[in-house]
């Protein structure tokens, strides 16, 4: 399965956080699956790190990128088609986060399942496989 992971899943996986349930952990470590991390997640981490919005997450983005490569995950660059598709993603009052919505646009345009712990992504389950 081809899976795009959201930013929290990335953080939890790299930290070994217990909030990452066994089902998701087994999907992330199954070598039959291709795991993707979007550059948008790396941007989000860099911004939140600089603004001290992630006080428990103490590593810089360069370290995160190195670990992504060690974990054999693939980094997805932001493409024009993702930006165009972003315009077509429905906007909900209860889910306006631009980083999250960009992940939805990427997953949809690349036909990827999206792994997240955020229940707000349920808005998109009619046109996107949410794990």
TrEMBL record:
<protein>
    <submittedName>
        <fullName>Type II toxin-antitoxin system VapC family toxin</fullName>
    </submittedName>
</protein>
<dbReference type="InterPro" id="IPR041705">
    <property type="entry name" value="PIN_Sll0205"/>
</dbReference>
<dbReference type="InterPro" id="IPR029060">
    <property type="entry name" value="PIN-like_dom_sf"/>
</dbReference>
<feature type="domain" description="PIN">
    <location>
        <begin position="3"/>
        <end position="125"/>
    </location>
</feature>
<dbReference type="Pfam" id="PF01850">
    <property type="entry name" value="PIN"/>
</dbReference>
<dbReference type="InterPro" id="IPR002716">
    <property type="entry name" value="PIN_dom"/>
</dbReference>
<dbReference type="InterPro" id="IPR052919">
    <property type="entry name" value="TA_system_RNase"/>
</dbReference>
């Amino acid at each position: 399965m081809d899976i795009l992971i959201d930013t929290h899943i990335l953080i939890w996986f790299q930290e070994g956080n217990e909030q990452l349930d066994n089902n998701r952990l087994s999907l992330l470590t199954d070598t039959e699956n291709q795991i993707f991390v979007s550059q948008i997640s790396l941007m989000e981490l860099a911004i939140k790190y600089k603004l001290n919005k992630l006080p428990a997450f103490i590593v810089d983005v360069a370290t995160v990128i190195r670990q992504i490569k060690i974990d054999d995950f693939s980094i997805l660059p932001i493409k024009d088609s993702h930006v165009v598709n972003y315009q077509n993603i429905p906007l909900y009052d209860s889910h306006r986060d631009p980083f999250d919505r960009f992940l939805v646009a990427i997953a949809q345009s690349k036909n990827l399942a999206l792994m997240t712990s955020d229940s707000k992504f349920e808005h998109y389950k009619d046109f996107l496989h949410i794990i």
